[in-house]
Structure formats: C-alpha cells, structure tokens
Amino acid sequence: xxxxxxxxxxxxxxxxxxxxxxxxxxxxxxxxxxxxxxxxxxxxxxxxxxxxxxxxxxxxxxxxxxxxxxxxxxxxxxxxxxxxxxxxxxxxxxxxxxxxxxxxxxxxxxxxxxxxxxxxxxxxxxxxxxxxxxxxxxxxxxxxxxxxxxxxxxxxxxxxxxxxxxxxxxxxxxxxxxxxxxx
Amino acid sequence: xxxxxxxxxxxxxxxxxxxxxxxxxxxxxxxxxxxxxxxxxxxxxxxxxxxxxxxxxxxxxxxxxxxxxxxxxxxxxxxxxxxxxxxxxxxxxxxxxxxxxxxxxxxxxxxxxxxxxxxxxxxxxxxxxxxxxxxxxxxxxxxxxxxxxxxxxxxxxxxxxxxxxxxxxxxxxxxxxxxxxxx
DNA sequence: AGCCGACATGTCAACTTCAACATGTCTGTC
DNA sequence: GACAGACATGTTGAAGTTGACATGTCGGCT
Lengths: 183, 183
Description:
The structure is a homodimer.
Chain A: H1 2-14, H2 19-27, H3 38-50, E1 54-59, E2 65-69, H4 71-83, H5 93-100, H6 106-134, H7 141-175
Antiparallel strand pairs in A: 1-2
Helix pairs in contact in A: 1-4, 2-3, 6-7
The structure holds a DNA duplex.
C-alpha cells in the first residue's frame, strides 16, 4: 500500500507523469525514505489505472504513457495519509547490528562503531548539501530535516557507544572482571 | 540473510534454544529492531541445520527441538557482523509520511504531526521503562539506547515541523501569498 | 473427565521486492 | 550512416514476509 501512496503523492505533487518520470523521482530525494525500481512501478501503475486511481492521460512517443490522478486516487491518498495508522514494524539492519555489538570482542566492536561513524558522517554531509541545494521550501524539506536529525542521533549514539566500550575496557583492566550481560 | 544472523546471534548469546524460545525473543526487545514470526523461524532453523550452521542438540517433549550453534554457524555470524556492509536501503513509512506532509492542508498536517508526537512520546516512555528495567549491562542495551535517541530525534523533528507550519501560517495570513514548493 | 491456556511445530497461499532479462525509440554527434 | 546514451516499458524467477490454517502435547484447575 505504501508504494501506491507514494506514487499517488508524486503524481499529485508533480502533476501528470510517466512511469519513467516516477522512477527518476524515486531515485532522487525520495530514495532516503522509500525505494522502488521500474520493475515494481510499471506494473503498479497499470494496476492503479485498472482500479480507477489513475487515468492514462496521453500516450506519447516511445510508448510513453502519462498518468494523471483521478478523484478516486486523490481520495485514496488522503485516506492513507489521515486514516491509516503508520506501520510500526521496522526492519533496520543498522539497529540489528547495534543489538549484536555485545557479542563481539571489544576491539572488533570498536572497529564496527568507528566504521558506522564514518558512514553516518558521510551521509550527513550528503544530506546537508541536498538541504542547502533545495532551499527552504522544497517538497521534500520535511523528510530531509527528519533524515538529518536521525543521522545526528545515530552519530551521537555511536560516540556514546564507543566511549562506553572504552570505559568498560578501563574498568576491566583495573578489576580484571569480565561482566557478561544477559539477554 | 539478516534473519539468519539474528537467529545465530540469539543462540550464541542465549545458549541452545528451540524455535519457540527464539520466537518469544523476537517478540521481546528485538522487536524494535527486527521482526520474524514462527512461520518464518521454523523453516529457517531447519534450513540452517541442513546447512550445518546449527545442530539439533536435543528433542524434548511436545516435539521440542533444541538447536545449538556450530563452529560454522559462529564463523558465519562473525563474518556477517564484520564483513558484510550494512544494507543501506531504508523503507520507512514514518519518513514517507513526513515527505508527503506538504500535500496536506495545514490543519490536517498539524493534526498528523500532533498525532505523531503523541505516539513518539508513548513509545519513548515504553523504551525508557524497558531501559531502567534491564539495567546497564543488558544484551540489548546498545540497541535500546539507539532506539531512544532516534525517538528523541523524531520528537524534536515533529516539534520543529509543527512550529514551522504555524509560522508559515502566520506569514500567509500576513501576506496572503501561498508558496507551493517544488519536488 | 473435561477444558483451558501455554507449549511446540509446521504448511500454504498471497503479496512485496529485486535483479536480470528483454525490447524498442529518439536525438545528437562523429 | 553508425553508434552512444537517454528515453521508455515491459516480464520473469527467486527470495523474503505475512496471516491464516492445521495439528498435537502437557499441566493445572474444576
């Protein structure tokens, strides 16, 4: 359902679009939030047209089909945004790795965390560039800001975890006791 | 692959376990990070045993099978943690909604954000309880801390967005101009 | 003895997603 | 005229995920 909502929203915001256009937009700023490749988009557009949410407005050269949103599509989007409660299920590989950190020997854990830190910094720089490029009033501004704040949180967490691991190392060296922790 | 890693890690950390045990643990703190139901876990355990990553250590009453990790399993887990780069693809419905906020009339957007704020606060309280319950040295402590920091980031973002929307409303009332934004 | 709830494991059909395969057009340049 | 690169839309098979269906055991309570 989220793919439908995303497609409806992109058409609502950007006006009539082809599958090709939409694929490009999925590769842009939306990629930080949701992904879909053309092999998912084209069939979905056909299904949505069959369901009356979209209408093929024009067929151009090279087989180009331009879809526009119908009243039913607009109402579906509205309903999804306002009446569907957000899917709470998360599947976050980064967080999963975080969960498993205590399984690693300290040095390896630290390596992993430093790697994560580098990665987060790089991504943050990327987003910050995007942020200043698109300016204050871009369509994606809210999502961008959200992504940025989450990256900062990830960075703070990695720093906290590194410090914590280093402290516990010192403690261990002093007392020669190895606490194990429980699940 | 992540499911395999998670199962290997749970057995490595918690000792020999049955599918039932593992299902329960997936419903616990791990649920904030990764989900899997028994219908996914049981077949995967069988496959992993066939692949030599696990060994059926004992068969108890009620058909209970206790799996323990093998050397191959341990090495697979280690390799996944250290040598597989984290999957960068994200699919975040909350962020998708954030992306779409500019599509809504201000009042509805504000409603959505306030709802989000309530939800984040509730979740945060939940995690904070968990955090103090499990104490400092729990296996899931790092993931918990990460989750908490991300929730705080979500909260700050929602507050920022609400304020921004209200400000732009004032600006609009003053100038009677409606900026639209671009994708 | 009967029943309930927790324990315990499985299958199956439907759906989503992805990478790879497949085809063809238009535009500009060498 | 040949070729490259962007434009444009599809299909297919494999893998991951879910909810529903299905089956049976054990312990404790009435």
